[in-house]
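Private note to self, pasted from the team thread so I don't lose it. Backbone tokens:
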């Protein structure tokens, strides 16, 4: 397949600031993993300059091998039992008002890493009680009892990414299914938590398919969504089918708001945790 040329609107300036250097130092000193780095996020410079980072727990090796994702795949190391404390200490050092925590998939563990998630949330609440927490969780293989453990730990926002439209899900996600992800998000919303999701566009989806995905989310009362351009991490990953124009991203935003979404971030460089703190600023 002939590669699609990257348009000018996806070119960004990455500049180092004193705050970004400080964030980098804290992340390195506490031996943390971030999705900012592993996912090659284009907003790392901006977010780290604001003193925010999306911390990834459970190690840096995922048991799944999705075709869009740059995180390492393979056989993970045993969990670091001190990680929850180190994460909480880092959140405190960064003086975060809003912390975003995510993880690799740990299908190798009996509870798929759920208890490790709970310990991390609890430790952050203990050390930084004023900090609001957003978690971006895996699907836990659709095991609702594990999703309930995260809900019961009471983070302010619980996010799980749909990633793409139903037709393309089997092509780009190695294990997760469209219906399982909907099931997880439905459980989050029906138990009274703020449910959030994120999708990529530019994988070959149609506007009608994106709108159907929106309808599916509204039907389960998930009303927070991020929409961003898929960027191919390497030649080994799923190819970009199209670079979606800023005008189409704005059209998606307006459509989502009309359908009943309360919070929508839709732009080429948007990622699931980009400016996530804005959610609680509006409520």
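Design output:
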């Amino acid at each position: 397949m002939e590669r699609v040329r990257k348009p000018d609107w996806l070119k960004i300036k990455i500049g180092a600031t004193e705050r970004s250097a400080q964030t980098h130092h804290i992340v390195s000193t506490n031996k943390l993993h971030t999705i900012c780095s592993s996912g090659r996020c284009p907003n790392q410079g901006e977010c780290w300059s604001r003193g925010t980072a999306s911390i990834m727990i459970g190690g840096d090796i995922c048991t799944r091998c999705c075709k869009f994702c740059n995180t390492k795949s393979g056989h993970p190391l045993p969990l670091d039992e001190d990680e929850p404390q180190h994460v909480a200490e880092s959140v405190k050092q960064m003086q975060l008002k809003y912390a975003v925590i995510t993880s690799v998939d740990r299908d190798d563990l009996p509870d798929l890493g759920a208890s490790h998630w709970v310990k991390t949330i609890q430790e952050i609440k203990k050390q930084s009680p004023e900090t609001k927490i957003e978690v971006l969780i895996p699907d836990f293989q659709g095991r609702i009892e594990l999703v309930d453990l995260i809900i019961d730990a009471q983070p302010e926002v619980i996010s799980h990414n749909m990633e793409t439209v139903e037709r393309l899900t089997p092509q780009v996600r190695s294990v997760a299914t469209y219906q399982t992800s909907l099931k997880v998000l439905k459980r989050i919303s029906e138990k009274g938590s703020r449910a959030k999701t994120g999708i990529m566009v530019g994988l070959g989806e149609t506007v009608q398919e994106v709108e159907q995905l929106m309808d599916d989310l509204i039907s389960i009362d998930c009303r927070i969504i991020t929409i961003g351009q898929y960027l191919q991490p390497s030649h080994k990953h799923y190819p970009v089918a199209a670079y979606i124009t800023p005008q189409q991203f704005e059209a998606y935003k307006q459509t989502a708001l009309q359908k009943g979404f309360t919070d929508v971030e839709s732009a080429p460089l948007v990622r699931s945790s980009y400016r996530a703190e804005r959610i609680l600023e509006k409520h």
